[in-house]
């Protein structure tokens, strides 16, 4: 059943709704930011996983994107996208599927973070007509999750090993600067990023000093790319690869990466029960529609209710949410049973992944229904 042309209040709940004008604005701002800094924008598709948002993020070029699953790579390939980076530490069993993309796409890049997988790449027999592997080294600028430390001898050894392979080309270095999520306020984000990106640029210089070309020097994370440091600290960076900015969320707003008004993706939920004696009401949004990502640590619980600062999502079960008043005084007359609320998610990537369709609206009218690719 299609809801195109219908009003938001006619949608089933819970539903993931997307303000198309905010998405367009977010995409335009990031593109303008990259253009002004002289870096290429290679947007990450993992937040939305849809064709329509992918077109907006690439300015309809269908080129130069990042994916985090091979299901995403297949989806975008089938929809005419090219120059795809699979930015996930490569594992042995994925080599055959990656080889298929290498043969089908004009440009397909893989990422590695250990010598064992580099050795496996060298031993993998590609068809004679196939291009060489295009290999990025994942490096760590201080986040501590994945990647080889930028200042390590290990990083140089891996680059030298990649460059020595007859069936591969070293494409550059790639980092996700997730430590920016621990910075609160634009200035702290900028200061932290300037230090981290300096490490990345130094790493590229050390590689070039070995006589090896380092074409791509890519950085990501929506906070750091939304609030980049002074242009002098960006010189030497070739690509930005943020993803969350397409929707933004409460986390980004609290960090200072965006304003609350920039949040484009929300959950529409309905009030289904009142419990005056205990001072709470129930909504039809449980953790299957929102996730438990925030761990309930926000002042308003697991989320923020748009335009309702006194409401707190205190707890959730699989399909139900318990809402109380922050000040302990819930005025039930303001929230009739059957009326709707809009939830600003703590983490848009996680919340969007819980929904099989996004209802895209302009004002109160549903314009389109976007369907994300699922799985791995």
UniProtKB/TrEMBL annotation:
Its cofactor is pyridoxal 5'-phosphate; Zn(2+). It holds the Pfam family D-ser_dehydrat. It is an enzyme of class 4 (lyase). Keywords: Lyase, Metal-binding, Pyridoxal phosphate, Zinc. SMART domains: D-ser_dehydrat. GO terms for molecular function: D-serine ammonia-lyase activity; metal ion binding. Residues 264-362 form the D-serine dehydratase-like domain. It comes from the Eukaryota. It catalyses: D-serine = pyruvate + NH4(+). Its EC number is 4.3.1.18. GO terms for biological process: D-serine catabolic process. Belongs to the DSD1 family. This is D-serine dehydratase. The lineage of its organism: Eukaryota, Metazoa, Cnidaria, Anthozoa, Octocorallia.
